[in-house]
Write a structure and sequence with these properties.
By secondary structure, this protein is of the alpha/beta class. It contains 18 helices and 21 strands. Strands 14, 15, 16, 17, 18, 19, 20 and 21 form an eight-stranded mixed β-sheet that branches. Helix 7 packs across helix 12. The two termini are about 45 Å apart.
């Protein structure tokens, strides 16, 4: 299998900053696909200062010819993004097809596109050129939700609050599956592995400063000037900045004059520094999800216009503190925010609820239809947000007796009570690498009279990434084993399923459940009752 990522790097110095984020998240997904057995090919256009050599260290990279630089001054919005492509979408798609043909690729199962200048025009044109030669599916990675796509899967890992499910309404074909929000953020595997190392952050002892490898806005210098305040002299500081940054020399000089301060070269991962830190100062790009995964409180400066709406939504929800955009944030403002962290009670950190770091694994599962072996573990406090997300999934609500969304407060009470309830068994299904992909729950009703039997009502759901992978039957069978270990073989399992839910009804039948007659009532809809006991 081949993954072709058409990654065009943007114009001038600023293009490196935006393009680097696209390259890094595509590289993360490509690595996960490699681990899952796929072959990976990158396809990029040559541009001054591009990051092709970084990709070429790990992958085969096909390169489109360099084009003359376009003037992007006074352009904004879609006209600016289209200018970054360097030519018309049809021309770029034609050159992409010609390059693929010249390279002799025999099959392309997925084309992954991550470029602000590409939309349904490019996507349709390339698929038309493919014809019957390649039966390819298309994954689009987007942030903007400002144009149509001809996609089979769409990933937007950003947080927009309650409007996430309608963000791409009218912009996608009906068959397109959407993976929206930080739950699917593309992070390296080290981030979920570091969960156990995250300390209880109660005081401000160490700060991490990172505004990207280039930091054209020179925000690193502003942050260091703020950290020079006498009240903050006892705080240790880690600074990360690339050698290509035009401000590297200035930053290095400031670091040398401040005690307890270390300047780090670019690192393969920031996870280690994030675990050590009590607070970060940075931007709101892909690094925001890395910090959130490790529960690191952050003071954020938006370094691009398209970052500001997401930063504002995260700030309003209490996941971070937004200081403003790069043009308005000044040193005294940063000083005040840091000093407040010294004297005010440390707030309960909520950002870890945004993502568990397994987004790349989930997307790889959805793309490759991986039938991964599952194991079950008991639900823990850390699973509360995950279970609420699954419970409010649109498909889950559509197949439930109540279609209403579950409030966070109601779910919190139900979840905490369930962890302590000896008659409730909540289990999380995980893959070999620990990625949670579903849940199964048993609510036991003990027998009330002589000759009666204990019955356990089943509820289950799968993350949308694992639907269609053949995991529902193994999930139920594993759950029944754990149920018997917990309550004994005499416990019977019962499932109530909407008659219209063909997939769930087929699942229980394959697992050996026997169906009672269909039940119809005004309050419970038409449903089927399924029963199972170990003697069947």
């Amino acid at each position: 299998m081949f993954l072709v990522v058409n990654q065009v790097l943007f114009r001038c110095d600023a293009s490196m900053t935006i393009g680097s984020g696209h390259v890094m998240r595509c590289r993360t997904l490509a690595r996960e696909l490699l681990r899952s057995g796929a072959d990976v090919v990158f396809l990029c256009r040559r541009q001054p200062g591009d990051l092709i050599e970084i990709l070429a260290q790990e992958f085969c990279v096909l390169t489109l010819p360099e084009l003359p630089l376009l003037t992007c001054e006074e352009l904004e919005g879609r006209t600016l993004y289209e200018a970054w492509l360097g030519c018309s979408q049809q021309q770029d798609a034609d050159q992409t097809f010609d390059l693929i043909s010249a390279a002799g690729l025999q099959s392309i199962d997925w084309v992954v596109v991550d470029h602000y200048g590409i939309d349904a025009v490019w996507e349709n044109h390339l698929l038309q050129r493919f014809g019957t030669r390649f039966s390819s599916k298309l994954l689009v990675i987007d942030d903007l939700a400002d144009r149509s796509h001809q996609a089979d899967l769409l990933l937007d890992q950003n947080y927009v609050g309650s409007g996430v499910d309608t963000r791409y309404s009218g912009l996608l074909p009906q068959h397109c599956r959407t993976f929206l929000g930080p739950h699917y953020a593309l992070l390296g595997p080290e981030y979920p592995r570091f969960h156990a190392l995250v300390p209880a952050r109660r005081e401000l002892h160490r700060v991490l400063v990172f505004f990207g490898g280039v930091d054209l806005n020179n925000l690193t210098t502003r942050a260091l000037e703020a950290l020079m305040a006498p009240e903050l002299s006892c705080v240790a500081v880690d600074v990360v900045l690339g050698h290509q940054s035009p401000h590297r020399e200035t930053v290095a000089d400031m670091v040398s004059r401040r005690p307890l301060t270390t300047l780090h070269d670019p690192l393969p991962s920031l996870a280690g520094l994030m675990v050590r830190a009590d607070l970060a100062i940075g931007a709101c790009g892909s690094t925001a999800w890395e910090r959130a995964c490790l529960g690191l409180p952050t003071l954020v400066v938006a370094i691009a216009k398209n970052q500001l709406p997401f930063a504002q939504a995260l700030d309003q929800a209490g996941f971070l503190m937004l200081l403003g955009d790069a043009s308005e944030v000044q040193v005294p403002q940063i000083v005040d925010a840091l000093k407040a962290r010294l004297v005010e009670p440390w707030p309960a950190e909520r950002s870890i609820q945004l993502t568990d770091g397994y987004g790349a694994a989930r997307l790889a599962m959805a793309m490759l239809r991986l039938n991964a072996p599952l194991t079950l573990r008991r639900a823990e406090l850390r699973d509360e947000a995950l279970l609420l997300k699954w419970a409010n999934d649109p498909d889950v609500r559509a197949n439930s007796f109540s279609h209403d969304l579950i409030s966070a407060d109601d779910h919190h009470c139900w979840f905490e009570q369930g962890l302590l309830n000896p008659n409730r068994l909540m289990l999380i299904a995980v893959t070999h690498d620990g990625c949670p992909v579903g849940q199964i729950r048993f609510d036991r009703s003990p027998a009330t009279g002589p000759g009666g039997v204990d019955e356990a009502l089943i509820g289950l759901s799968l993350d949308q990434c694992s639907r269609g992978c053949g995991l529902s039957v193994p999930l139920v069978r594993l759950g029944l084993q754990v149920m018997q270990q917990r309550w004994g073989q005499s416990t019977h399992a019962v499932a109530e399923v909407l008659s219209s839910n063909d997939a769930s009804n087929a699942c229980f039948e394959r697992c050996g459940f026997k169906s009672d007659a269909e039940v119809s009532s005004k309050s419970r809809h038409d449903m089927k009752l399924w029963r199972w006991c170990s003697m069947d």
